[in-house]
Amino acid sequence: MALLVYAAAASHTAQLVRTPDKLRPSQREAIYGGLEQIRMHLANSRPNVLVIFGTDHYQSFHLDNMPAFCIAIGQATETFGDAGVPLARYGMHEVFSRFLASFVLEAGIDVATSRRLKLDHAFASPLHFVLPKADVPVVPIVINTIAPPLAPAQRSYLLGRAVGAAITSYPQDLRVAVLGTGGLSHWVPIPHPDQPGDEQDAEILEQMIAGHDDPSRLTRLLLPRIARLSDANEARIAEDFDREVIEMLAEGRASELALRSTQWIDDHGGGGGQEIRNWLAVAGATGDGLATLLAYEPVVPWLTGIAMMEWDTRR
């Protein structure tokens, strides 16, 4: 049977790649040191496949068709190269991805599947650091954390539980690692799809609804807003929220954290805080194992509370 050999989570932001110069030296050491620990520990676990939970920022999916969950199926995937993250191509474990999708559906978690899923910076930015040689097949799983209405956080945790059960039920020998990406707190300068804004918001909203023909256009529209907040050091980060999430995951209380409402997350951690669903999925896959904090830095120029954690996969 398959074995879960490693589990971790890391914040994703294209600024990890694009603007390291905006960090203080102590922040740079902590953040890139945490990513290096994940890279080393992942490599030392000798996985045959990496399951990675991430978000899609209106690149592959738009408001005209937005699944709550989607598992990629196939032989290979590639990134969009959005927001300054280099283009990359990753092999996939096709047999395991199909088994995983079928198992999760049988477990009562309604997931979409995609045979041609491309990955945006949510996947690409952490993979750039922790899998630099792209030498381990991946199985990407998209969790909608950006386009309301969102499935309750508990559903992401239960998705992770189903993935963990699928790993132990897989009939062949396989060493599986799991990685979650995103969060922690951040307020993304993007219009709410149900609240009309100004003319520029309308242009962005149209791209959110049906931007299939030019996925990079949304990034081009949003980057000036992000740059203004970054350059002015005016971004909001909720350290209390970040530390509460970290503490609960460290203590093996993910099932309790998963009961927090979407509104609570939005109020305390911002729209970007909804990405803790990807971390909850990892915790679920480990069976609510204890987690260890590798790094946490509230990085105002990056608009985000940046953290990395690893889970105890021994059962």
List keywords for this structure.
alpha/beta; Protocatechuate 4,5-dioxygenase, Chain B; 8-stranded mixed β-sheet; 11 helices
Summarize the entry for a quick read:
With 315 residues, the protein is of the alpha/beta class.
Topology:
Layout lengths: L1 E9 L4 H4 L6 H20 L4 E6 L14 E4 L3 E3 L10 E3 L2 H13 L5 E3 L6 H10 L7 E6 L9 H17 L4 E8 L17 H12 L5 H17 L6 H12 L3 H4 L4 H8 L6 H10 L5 E9 L4 E8 L4
Parallel strand pairs: 1-8, 2-7, 2-8, 3-6
Antiparallel strand pairs: 1-10, 3-7, 4-5, 9-10
Helix pairs in contact: 3-5, 5-11
CATH fold type: Protocatechuate 4,5-dioxygenase, Chain B
- Named at the architecture level, the CATH assignment is 3-Layer(aba) Sandwich
Distance N to C terminus: 15 Å
In CATH, what is the homologous superfamily? LigB-like
Helix content: 40-55%
Q: How large is the count of helical segments? A: 11
State the secondary-structure class: alpha/beta
Strand order of the largest sheet: 6-3-7-2-8-1-10-9
> Compute the gyration radius: what is it?
18 Å
**SSE string, helices as H and strands as E:** EHHEEEEHEHEHEHHHHHHEE
Number of domain units: 1
Number of strands: 10
Unreliable parts = none
The largest sheet is: 8 strands, mixed
Strand content: 15-25%
| The first-level CATH class name | Alpha Beta
State the shape. globular
Mean pLDDT: 95
